[in-house]
Structures are given as C-alpha cells and as structure tokens.
Specification:
Structural class: alpha/beta
Largest sheet: 5 strands, parallel
Radius of gyration: 16 Å
Strand content: 15-25%
Number of helices: 7
Order of helices and strands: EHEEHEHHEHHH
C-alpha cells in the first residue's frame, strides 16, 4: 500500500500536522504540498490537509480532491483558529462528504492552529461583532498546534491506516 500526505499551508500550521501524520505512517509513503500534485495516481490512501479559510475548505483543495478522489481511500485533516469542539467547525467543513463523494472517506481530524497576525488585525478592525469575537480567540491559539495536538494527529494517522490494512 502506498500513502500520500498532501497538504496546503499558509502559516505552517497544517504542514506541522502533515509532518506528524507522515512520520506515523508505515510503509511506502510520500508527503507533498498539494500545489505540487497533478493527481492521486499511484496512491492507495490519501490524507489531505488544509487550513479553514473564510469559514470553509479552500476552493483549490475542494476542486482538486473532487477531480481526483474517485476510487481512493481518503482522510482529511484541517487547522483553524478556534478551539476544538467549536460548534461552527461542523458547518465550515460540512462539505467534506460531498468533496469526497467519489472516494471512500475514512475520517477527519481538526485542530487549532496559530492565527496569522494580519488575519487577527483584519478581524479586529471589522465592524462585524462576530469577526471581533473571532479576533478575541487569537491569543488562545498562540503556539498551536502544540505537542499534544501533534500526538493526536499521529494517533489519527494510525487509526486511518488501520482501516485499510
């Protein structure tokens, strides 16, 4: 079995999680930035990671997966600026089942990542009270993903790989 860990990152948070997942995978494996891929050919299991952007899966990731997931076992991992369990995460990423509809979705992993300062500045300047509330969550995200999150990502990798072996 050959496994791919593909990711999109802007601040390095998602790359940290990708590397933790990659380190835990047994067997033949590759890790690549999604922008360096043309398809998922040659891989039996694919992990796809991304930061939640504008409350959703980034359009380039969504499009790429939809076009290439047919017949593949797939798992998603994502980073975001809010604490785990934040109710809105489900609505932000609710399209994952649709994105992976032509494949076999094995699971998802999400964790908090540090918020880029320019994003915090934009949220703080917003007239929208909800955006200001998101900005207030920024300090709690400092230093994320931390070692416990990386360990959870490794456990996720093992769980997903066990489903296909």
């Amino acid at each position: 079995m050959k496994t791919l860990v593909a990711y999109m990152t802007q601040t390095g948070n998602t790359k940290k999680i990708a590397e933790a997942i990659y380190d835990e995978i047994a067997g033949e494996k590759d890790i690549k930035d999604i922008k360096d891929l043309t398809n998922f050919e040659g891989y039996d299991l694919v992990f796809v990671g991304f930061p939640v952007l504008q409350f959703n899966v980034p359009e380039n990731v969504s499009k790429f997966v939809k076009e290439n997931v047919a017949g593949k076992d797939i798992a998603f991992f994502m980073t975001h600026g809010v604490p785990e369990g934040f109710e809105a995460i489900k609505s932000w990423t609710g399209s994952l089942k649709d994105i992976a509809a032509d494949g076999n979705l094995l699971g998802t992993f999400e964790c908090q990542g540090e918020i880029a300062q320019h994003v915090l500045d934009m949220l703080e300047k917003s007239d929208d009270p909800e955006m200001k509330a998101f900005a207030a969550l920024g300090p709690a995200a400092k230093g994320q993903p931390d070692e416990p999150h990386l360990q959870k990502a490794k456990e996720f990798a093992k769980e997903i790989q066990a489903k296909v072996q």
